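Final report, results section. Input specification for complex C-07:
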Amino acid sequence: MTNTVACAEKADVILITGSNTTENHPVISAGVKRAVESGRTKLIVVDPRYIKIAGFADIFMRQNLGSDVAWLNGMMHVIIKEDLYDKDFVAERTEGFEELKASVEKYTPAHVEEISGIPADLLVEAARMYAGAKVASILYCMGITQHTSGTDNVKSLANLAMLCGNLGMPGGGVNPLRGQNNVQGACDMGGLPNVYTAYQAVNSEEVARKMEGAWGVEGVSLELGMKATEMIPAAHDGRLKALYVLGENPLVSDADLNHAEKSLANLELMVVQDLFMTETAEMADVVLPGRCFAEKDGTFSNTERRVQRVRQAVEAPGEAWDDWKIIGEIATRMGYPMSYGNAEEIFEEIRQVTPSYAGITYERIAVEGLHWPCLNEEHPGTPILHSTQFTRGKGMFHAIDWQPPAETADAEYPLYLTTGRVLYQYHTGTMTMRSEGLMDRAPESFVEISPKDAATYGIEDGTRVNIASRRGTINALVKVSHKAVDGTVFIPFHYAHAAANKLTNAALDPVSGIPEFKVCAVKLSAES
Amino acid sequence: MTDQNILVMNGNEFTFEPGETILDVARRHSVDIPTLCHLKGATPTGACRICVVEVEGARTLLAACATPAGKNMVIRTESPQVVEARRTILKLMLASGNHNCAARGSDEQDWTAFQLAVEAGDGSNKLCPTWGDCRLQDLAYRYQVDGEGHPGTASPYPLEDVNPMIVRDFSRCILCGRCVQACNEIQVNKAISFGFRGAETKIIAAGDKPLKDSDCVFCGECVQVCPVAALVEKNPRYDVRPWETEQVRTTCTYCGVGCQIHLHVRDNKVVKVTGVEDMAPNYGSLCVKGRFGFDFIHAPDRLTKPLVRKNGQLEETSWEEALDFVADKLGQIKKDHGPNSIGLLTSARVSNEENYVAQKFARAVIKTNNVDHCARL
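Structure output:
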């Protein structure tokens, strides 16, 4: 997030898109709801489902799956045409405005309606509302990113925010709501194929020499590595021989699972470090017991870039070890001694090689976490990014054209499928499915379908159906719901027994490598 | 001087900001005015009147939580009149409902009959589940009152325990309304409200249905703010007493909000989770997963020993053997096929320290940048 969690309550207008906020980030949604209820804040929700937060919206727009660039360009078309944009901000802080202006020219509300299904007058109203705010915040989540056009979608949101000067102040910003406790930290720490900690490029000679010096090694690779979504095909065609998996369950979370399973079976060595015998662990050659959050010390970095302490509360069961200790032991056996006494020692090393974390110490965050960048021990942290300039100096507008999703509905697969989470489950369910209360509320998978589609396909609430895509078939309980839009069904991806990801399309966004989990074509048939 | 926003509280002059209540001013200056129904961040209701104070010139005692601070007010927060009023309120509260702790008092015979009646409704012969962690009990001790001398009034509503997470015990509800405010004004789930009237008053969900059939999303905000034992987590309800537990402050392990939580630990076991009050980013609030989704920590099927596949089966082995096997095999594959034939999926679930060590291992030891995690999934 460019801004903080608390910031949403300072916005005049909040635009939420691609985020089922009340189910996936309930505590953030509470802040949004409080702001709306107070009368201070107006809310625009754009989502293919009539999710709960939509009930709080002043304007709710339901877009066709994969049409985000179109409606965002449409909003900018209106804002430029009606001269509602922030001219000072555009002049002083950005570049590329003319190209943006030209690119959104053809996205008239009428044209956008054809692509997105959003009524033209509603789009105009939303554009005026967003542009009319003194400060407006954008909250988005995987509904924006999990598309073949995911990067374009995010850039379009940034375009919109810059156009209206909504960056760098309390209550503004472009705010991705991160779905996992430490996904921010995993990225910050260089858990990515192209960067070391703090996003230092692996293909920079200078950075490589610095890291070699810090680590006392030679010959680190300057080549970009494979993304997770590239490792699977690499395993399939034999380029990848070994995979070390730390606390992940790709055999439920990846797109096109049947393909993923075949690919992983092809590996010479798969090591899985986890809490439980997950679907992925069952295929492994070696399974190593790790510790859960309650059994370890360390830090997590949350969605607002706040580095916060994790503290050990209980002893780990049996012979479960800290994950860092396991890896350190293997490194040592491979000829590189890596022995840390505790988590804080590792954090002290992180500070040395990670400029944005340099000023953070366990002592400073004992009570309240700090937002990176925090450059030295006197630095107060940075709750709000880009307040005087962007990382690259001026903010760059990207002229972007709408592209349809990789797979569209046709005669054989007439319905669209979109996937996501439910409130009571989390990701692949490794943790939540062991909770009595959560399982009581959400015991099994379902396919959510609109009343009209249910009637068309002769499907009744509470019965079971087969759902098939070009990649697989699953069976799930029918939930007829007004949440669903006609022509699109929704299935949560948590449940291995009816894994939505057997159906999803592994087509990737060309830049981010994110699969198009949010759009694929399916057909339904009564259980035989 | 009189133009300034100054008032006198217990003989001390305090400044105040326009819009502050008497309670706000008191808290800011560390004057302890007791509250029961008051909930930070919600509209003051003045419902319980335990925070009443004496203001010179006012005809009655005023609720500090709902009365705006005024210029030159002369306030006494613990005058004999105030203390007497609080004692009366507490006595009535203790006398109505199943407050079976020592604070209730009673001669022996009456206690036996009372306790038996409580047991019948509650299914337990123990003292109140929030004994030792009860605002009403604390105040009863502070003001040295018990419920004796008042005829007990039983609740007309049976206990609700039909969901695995929250028990609603109307017999111990003091109708302070904190839960209603937490649900409507803090979490804005709008699942519960006041229902019925007079002696029949009850906190209801969806036209008086069990929580599981209402709009309740089991965030448990109501449980955390309940000052008595009307709303209690089901599992630790009678099993865990607060003096047996230690609280460890940490960060929730589910989504990216990073809620600050207290793990309540007894005998090396997490028995309860609560949100850390007054602390960003969640200020005490949690969701159902954070509050009730911790069973996995102590699940019987946790992995406890390293496993290595032998003859097609994963078999338990020693750490030495497992680590040697992995190190040898990775070394061999690196030698035969080069470092880029090895990939490492680190994790958005583990700590910064562990992610750092994992990517360092890939880059410094294996010498590949094939490092990623499930940020994209």
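Chain B has a mean pLDDT of 93. The longest helix of chain B spans residues 319-337. This concludes the modelling results for the funded period.
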